[in-house]
Amino acid sequence: QFLIEQVKTAYELKITHEDPALLDHLERHIILVAIDRLWQEHLYNMDALRDGVHLRAQGQKDPLVEYKNEAYKLFVTLMDNIEGEVLGNLFRSTTNLEKFEKFLHDLPFELSGQDYPGAAVG
Questions:
Q1: 27 shares its domain with 50
Q2: Taking the model in full, what pTM does it have?
Q3: Same domain? 26 vs 64
């Protein structure tokens, strides 16, 4: 819950530094690219699952049940990956470099990740 509030606060600050029309286009582009790339990856994973699920029958397990369970896990992973990539790319992109620098400057220190020892530095 804390993390969700932090993301919402950072996003509200970000939209104050962007042109709304351009931001809308940027957001759509980020979402479509993430979904397209990750969906293709998901389809490859599903093909690999389909090709390997027959081995489960040798282990005395119902291949259809195993396929459904694994496919569900892959789908949940897909959705998590889409969410993570969209959020990550949304905060790493901008419609204007000067506005992005101002956004980073105005971002409260506790939202920048610098106060967390495990925060990644890119």
A1: yes
A2: 0.72
A3: yes
Phi, psi of 102 (to 5 degrees): -65, -40
Tens digit of each residue's pLDDT, the chain (122 residues): 787 888 888 888 878 878 888 888 999 999 999 999 999 999 999 999 998 887 777 777 888 898 999 999 999 999 999 999 998 898 888 877 787 777 778 777 655 555 444 444 43
CA 66 to chain centre: 27
User: Residue 35 belongs to what domain range?
Assistant: 21-93
In one-letter notation, the amino acid at residue 8 is: K
Here the CATH number for the domain that contains residue 43 is 1.10.3060.10
- Which runs of consecutive H residues, i.e. helices, occur in the chain? 2-16, 20-52, 54-58, 63-92, 97-106
Distance CA 29, CA 119 (A): 27
Compute the chain's Rg from CA coordinates.
20
Residue 80, in any domain of the structure: yes
